[in-house]
Amino acid sequence: MHVKINASKTRTIIDFRQSGFSELVVLGKYNYNKAEDILENHVHDRMIEICYSDKGSQWFAVEKQRYLVKGGDVFIHYPDELHGSGGYPEEKGCLYWFIIKVPKKTKAQSTTAFLINQLIDMNRRHFRGDGSIKKMLEEIFKVSRSEEESMQMLKIKINLLSQLFLLKLIELANKKTNDTDNERLSKIYELINNSITQNLTIERLANEVNLSESRFKNWFRDLSGFTPLDFVQRKRVEHAMDRIKQNPDINFKDLALELNFSSQQYFTTVLKKFTGKTPSEIKQSTLELNTPGEP
Q1: Most buried pick, 14, 37, 42, 168, via CB within 10 A?
Q2: What is the pLDDT of residues 154-193, one digit of tens each?
Q3: Alpha-carbon distance 126 to 237, whole Å?
Q4: Is the dihedral of CA 153, 156, 162, 164 positive or negative?
């Protein structure tokens, strides 16, 4: 199949426009082992972008509203929305994105167009996916690479796989969440946010929702997409970035101790892991941003 595939060790992108698809635009995947560059703000004109986080997490910003997308989540950027990563890097992990044109609603619209409009009408931007999402997207990658069938047959297969993918999204977006689990998870989030400078042990967090430590770790990961330690570290990094941006001259050693890191060196290691920058680099970026340009 003559589909342009821009491949590297960390990114794979299929451009369906090269083969004359009328609605499918791009299917991409990255698999990073470290934080990469910031995703700058951009707009997809009359296109929807569907993201699926297989592992890790990613910050997205849509019209100044921030969202944390974690492993197992589906996140949708609707047509003509200004979006990017909100100043955060593309993080360590694996994420898929599928960009599809959004045709106008008509009585004679195609199956793909009908499903896309159904998904948009549901207005569910952020919801949990499942393992079948990854399998479906990988199958589209696999079929796109095939050189054994005619272009017409491959187009039929890819369109059908894409429609099954959209049907699955609609099914998942319709699922009701467990209110009890959501309330308990919100309770844990609140405890972490209010105690970010304290020593947050698994025992303390598990006791908050009356679970054993081993059960709590599995329960928290299933619902949040993170291990408890990873989530706490992310919150501390988030807090550290806010503090540095508010006061670029803050003492990094004092900030590390305040956020309960064992040393300034470990603080720097964790910050670079999640942001791709050291505290000094974040400080420098803040100073450059706050420095007025020449008239």
Answers
A1: 14
A2: 999 999 999 999 999 999 999 876 667 878 888 999 999 9
A3: 23
A4: negative
To the nearest 10°, report the CA torsion of 211, 216, 219, 223.
110
Last residue of a domain, one of 108, 142, 174: 174
Q: pTM for the whole thing?
A: 0.77
Supply the CATH number for residue 215's domain: 1.10.10.60
Which runs of E-coded beta strand occur in the chain?
Answer: 4-7, 11-15, 24-32, 47-62, 65-70, 73-77, 83-84, 93-101, 126-128
pLDDT at 291: 63
Boundary of a domain, candidates 147, 174, 201: 174
What is the C-alpha separation between 192 and 216, in angstroms, rounded? 15
Residues 191 and 92 reside in one and the same domain: no
Q: Are residues 22 and 150 in the same domain?
A: yes
Rounded Cα–Cα distance for residues 178 and 280 (Å): 43
Could you give the count of Cα atoms lying within 13 Å of 280 in the half-sphere of its Cβ? 3
The answer to whether residues 94 and 36 touch, using CB atoms and an 8 Å cutoff, is: no
DSSP-derived 3-state class of residue 146: coil
CA gap 24, 226 in Å, rounded: 32
CB 143 within 8 A of CB 161: yes
Q: Is 116 exposed, middle or buried (0-12, 13-18, 19+ CB in 10 A)?
A: buried
Provide the domain limits for residue 47.
4-174
Q: What is the DSSP letter of 293?
A: P
Q: Which among 89, 116, 86, 84 is positioned nearest to 101, based on CA atoms?
A: 116
* Residue stretches of the chain with pLDDT short of 70: 1-7, 177-179, 290-295
DSSP state of 136: H
Q: According to the model, what pLDDT value does residue 3 have? A: 39
- The pLDDT tens digits of the residues spanning 209-253 come to 999 999 999 999 888 878 899 889 989 998 998 899 899 899 999
